[in-house]
């Protein structure tokens, strides 16, 4: 894989590039098992985490990833910064660039912000999209695919796609950059995707995507998908009555204990987090043996190590072995 300067959207990856990133993440995951879980690969490089929106999992995951690759890390949060005084993305980016950085990890409320930054003359650094509005979240899509691939293929995952895997994504698709990240990547890897949501929470034109859609969760469960991914209801992005009441939503589209009991024995349960327990998912489902929620969190570090390594090494796929692993 060559030429990956930025990672801005899941759909920007072709099959070979996506599999190469997943394979690199396999090598990076091996690093965590060592007595000293670090590589010298990015020593002397500086990664700036620019988070204009609140985050816990993604921010900490990128910090851990950069530090395990021996990079220096600058973390910027909009709260308490000049952004709260009206400073623009351009001014903030140029301020950070003046400190000498090699990569920017950007989370922003505006869809397309990462691409604007990458295509601007404001900075000369690799840009990784850590979530832009309701548009995309490519490293989340990659870690979800990595989690599915590991669960399906185990130790023989390298080189594998997700051919024939049946994935049902349920919930607030309209506001979910996680859903769009998966929709941009999973079909590329060969998965078959089905969306289940209230009609008010399906984006206009969703029928044109390479997916099937419905509003019947019970029928989807009866169809025994390989993966059932529950999305968070993003109340902070909702400014209209997309459904009458939370109880109604949970009754029709929540993975409650009764629905969970009806899942096929081999169906894996996923959720990008944070979870609204009792709304989109029950504790019984979230904490069950078939839940991959904690695997998703753990796999995020390996994926983000793979992405930072790849964009900062000119896109050359080598993995941890070639990158200085002992």
Can you tell me about this structure?
This protein is an alpha/beta fold and 326 residues long. It folds into 2 domains: 140 residues, Aspartate/ornithine carbamoyltransferase (Rossmann fold), CATH 3.40.50.1370; 159 residues, Rossmann fold (3-Layer(aba) Sandwich), CATH 3.40.50.1370. Helix content is 35%, strand content 14%. The chain has 11 helices and 9 strands. The strands form 2 sheets. A 5-stranded parallel β-sheet has the order 7-6-5-8-9. Helix 5 crosses helix 6 and helix 5 packs across helix 11. The longest helix is centred in the C-terminal third of the chain and has 20 residues. The chain starts with 14 loop residues before the first helix and ends in a 14-residue tail after the last helix. The C terminus is likely disordered.
Summarize the entry for a quick read:
It contains eleven helices and nine strands. The protein is an alpha/beta fold. The protein folds into two domains: 10-136 and 300-312, Rossmann fold; 138-296, Rossmann fold.
């Amino acid at each position: 894989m060559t030429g990956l300067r930025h990672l801005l959207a899941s759909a920007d990856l072709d099959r070979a590039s996506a599999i190469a990133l997943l394979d690199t993440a396999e090598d990076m995951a091996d690093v965590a098992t060592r007595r000293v879980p670090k590589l010298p690969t990015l020593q002397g490089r500086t990664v700036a985490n620019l988070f204009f929106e609140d985050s816990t999992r993604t921010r900490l995951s990128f910090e851990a990833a950069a530090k395990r690759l021996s990079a220096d890390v600058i973390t910027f949060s909009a709260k308490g910064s000049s952004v709260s005084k009206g400073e623009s993305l351009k001014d903030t980016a140029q301020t950070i660039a003046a400190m000498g950085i090699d990569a920017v990890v950007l989370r922003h409320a505006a869809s397309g912000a990462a691409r604007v930054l990458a295509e601007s003359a404001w900075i000369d650094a690799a840009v990784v999209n850590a979530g832009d509005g309701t548009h995309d979240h490519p490293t989340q899509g990659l870690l979800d695919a990595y989690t599915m691939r590991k669960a399906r293929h185990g130790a023989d995952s390298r080189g594998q796609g997700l051919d024939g895997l049946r994935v049902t994504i349920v919930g607030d698709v309209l506001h979910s950059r996680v859903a769009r990240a998966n929709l941009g990547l999973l079909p590329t890897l060969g998965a078959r995707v089905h969306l289940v949501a209230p009609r008010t929470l399906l984006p206009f034109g969703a029928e044109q995507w390479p997916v099937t859609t419905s509003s019947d969760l019970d029928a989807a469960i009866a169809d025994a998908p390989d993966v059932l991914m529950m999305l968070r209801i993003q109340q902070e992005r909702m400014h209209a009555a997309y459904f009458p009441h939370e109880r109604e939503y949970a009754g029709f589209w929540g993975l409650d204990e009764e629905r969970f009991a009806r899942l096929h024995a081999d169906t894996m349960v996923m959720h990008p987090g944070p979870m609204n327990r009792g709304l989109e998912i029950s504790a019984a489902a979230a904490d069950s043996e078939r839940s991959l929620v904690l695997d998703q969190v753990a796999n995020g570090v390996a994926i983000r190590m793979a992405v930072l390594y790849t964009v900062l090494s000119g896109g050359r796929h080598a993995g941890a072995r070639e990158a200085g692993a002992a």
